[in-house]
Damage-control phosphatase ARMT1 family protein
Amino acid sequence: MIRIDAPGSFAWGVFHERHPKLVQQVLDALPYGPAERAAVERLLADSTTGVLEPPAESDHDHAQWLEWGAGLWGRPWSEAPFLWAESYFYRRLLDAIGYFRPGAWQGVDPFAPFKSAELAGAAVDEELAALSELDGLPTMRRADALLSSALWGNRADLSFQITAEAGGPTASDLVADERAILWSELERTRGGRICVVADNAGRELLPDLVLIDHLLSGGLAGRIVLYVKPQPYFVSDATMTDVLASVERLRTAPSEAAAAVGRRLWHAMNSGALVVRTHPFFCAPLPYHDMPADLRAEFTGAAMAILKGDLNYRRLVGDQLWPPTTSFTETAGHFPTPVAALRTLKSDVVVGVAPDTVTHLDSTGTPWRTSGRHAVVQVALHR
Ligand SMILES: O=P(O)(O)OC[C@@]1(O)O[C@H](CO)[C@@H](O)[C@@H]1O
């Protein structure tokens, strides 16, 4: 289990270096009043030197968090697992800015300015315009281009841009590449239900939606359930508001290819071919191994679940310093369906990497696990 109390570790850096920058960006992005600003600064101090206190008894999820944090309440934040502490940090950040409290700030996404700016940005105009170039490609070439866009869209995660290294992806950046297995399994189960567990909004959700349109239009998926977060989380994680903004961004794009995707997604949502759902567990501080029975039942029977991004990966395989050669199927085998992970490496957790690849990456002397430069496409077909 990874903790945040080892100075110099990635997890320690997230709490002691990344969160202070993030908090300042949040406070600079919206004109919060003195009460919200003081509460955010208190959270920042608490999360590095204080003890864990549950949400207020009056909060809607008080009982749930009492359960999720059993044995941790009253102990220093530094004694909590990294996954748990980071999740709770975002839950308390929402408290601090009044997201749950009745009043003017209730329901205002603190990360909306970042998400809106990214979605409205010129980079998205360029990416949507490039879609028309894919229309003429053979189906499999187009499919693979869309899968790569969805995969590398995960690199655009805002919380990552604070320390991101620039530079576009190359094939060697894939340290585990099971795309052929993924496409073969989707062909074998053609017409089945595919679950996509989204990660970030903006430049990750857009290619995710374009891929979803491809899977539906081409018949690989008869129905797609897109899972998003029930509330703002990890800066850029997608909510229903972000899905609607992204579908609208597509539908109103100058590029006809993009606009057609937007129209098809809109109609797919009208018909129920594309359903967007959420569940409290997507903001829980726990691994997917511990998912509640109702969510497990929702996934069960799907042809494939595609999990996007680094946090979903950590929750899928377990937030531990596994030997990188540990089997992905063994660590992901608890998931109720065949599962694929599309993830850029932005934290220490990685499994399923071939020994010679690990040897090579270690020999580069670069922080290959956390730099965001590398990615994996991995599939577990145990079910
Ligand atoms: O799930 P994403 O958006 O790909 O990445 C989220 C994430 O990389 O950001 C945090 C650091 O800020 C990590 O601890 C966490 O895994």
In short: Residues 14, 18, 86, 154, 157, 159-160, 199-200, 234, 309-311, 314, 346-347 surround 1-O-phosphono-beta-D-fructofuranose (CB under 6 Å).
